[in-house]
Every structure is written in C-alpha cells, then in structure tokens.
Amino acid sequence: MDSPYLQGSVLESPVGLVLAESGGRVNAMTVSFFSEVAHHPTTLWVSIATRSYTHELIQSSSRFSLIVLHEKQKDIAENCGSASGRDRDKCAGLNLYRAENSFLYLPGAFASISCEVRSARPVDQHTLFIATILSGESDSKTSFRRHLLTTDLL
Q1: How close are the terminal C-alpha atoms of the chain, in Å?
Q2: Would you state the torsion angle of the CA atoms of residues 58, 28, 32, 140, taken in this order, to the nearest 10 degrees?
Q3: Domain chopping of the chain, boundaries
Q4: DSSP secondary-structure letter at 14?
Q5: Are the C-beta atoms of residues 85 and 64 closer than 8 Å to each other?
Q6: Which 8-state DSSP code applies to residue 153?
Q7: Which helix (H) or strand (E) holds 6?
Q8: I need a labelling partner for 108 at 20 to 30 A (CA). Which of 60, 95, 124, 139 fits?
Q9: Does domain 14-153 have CATH number 2.30.110.10?
Q10: What pLDDT, on the 0 to 100 scale, is given for residue 146?
Q11: pLDDT at res. 66
C-alpha cells in the first residue's frame, strides 16, 4: 500500500478499521493510530484526520466500532485504506453484521469493539477521539494469529 502515513511511520503498530455510521451512511477506514487508554472505565483513543469521511460520521453520531485486524486480513486493510468512502462504498465488500447493541462488527476479525465518544481533542489536522468501550467480541479461532501490523502493508 503506497501511503505517506505508512512510509513515514516510526514504529510498527496494529492495524484496524474504524466503522462509522450516521443517517444511513456507513464507512470503513483503515487506522493504525489507536490504543487502550484505561481499564476502569474501559477507554480507548483513535486518531482520525479531520478531512476524512469517517471523521464526519463520528462527529455526527458520537460512536464507532473499532475492528482489530489479524495478519490474514491485509486485503481488507488495503481496500479500506485506498479510497475515500465519499467515492466508493467500502463496506459493500465486507461481511459486516450487527452486534446485539446495534454496532457493526466484522466476523473473523481479531476483535470488534463498540465505542461511544467521550471527548474529542484537536491535534493539528486530526482529532483524537477518546471513547468508552461499551462491549466487544474476539474470535477465538484467530487467537493463534497475530495482529496485522503496519509493516505488513509496506
């Protein structure tokens, strides 16, 4: 994947998807800037470019799903990181399902996590969304695999 974000990265990091929806619109965006913040209350952060379609959807809904991908899901990361959701429906090719709490999840992913935005902090051309983790699922069949890493995409 030819990306200035990946080429300029200092450390390898896990790769995931942020699934955001609002007003009947849904988008999936590849991310590598996310992490758990605290265990009590369970909290994570994710950094999203302010010009992105995903940012617009999160701002509107104050919620998103974080999907942590494993090493065999490189094609998903590349597909969802190669174009804007404004131009192409990136979710059409994904086998998404609704969890009991109505958040979108991806079967077979390392983990799928439901998040509600607690606060948003501007950082240059990005927003750092700090979110409460409401619930999540992990696929025990993928537990022998490792996370997809940014270096896998170079």
Answers
A1: 6
A2: 110
A3: 14-153
A4: B
A5: no
A6: G
A7: helix 4-7
A8: 60
A9: yes
A10: 72
A11: 97
Q: Tell me the pTM.
A: 0.87
**Pair of tokens at residue 31:** 């991310």
Dihedral-angle region of residue 128 (phi above 0 means left; psi in -120 to 50 means alpha; beta otherwise): beta
| Whole-angstrom distance, CA of residue 47 vs CA of residue 132 | 15
Tokens (6 digits) for 147: 């996370």
CB atoms within 10 A of CB 109: 23
45: tokens are 């952060």
143: left (phi over 0), alpha (psi -120 to 50) or beta: alpha
Model pLDDT for residues 14-49, shown as the tens digit of each residue: 899 999 999 999 999 999 988 888 888 899 999 999
Cβ contact 94:28 at 8 Å: yes
- One-letter identity of residue 64: F
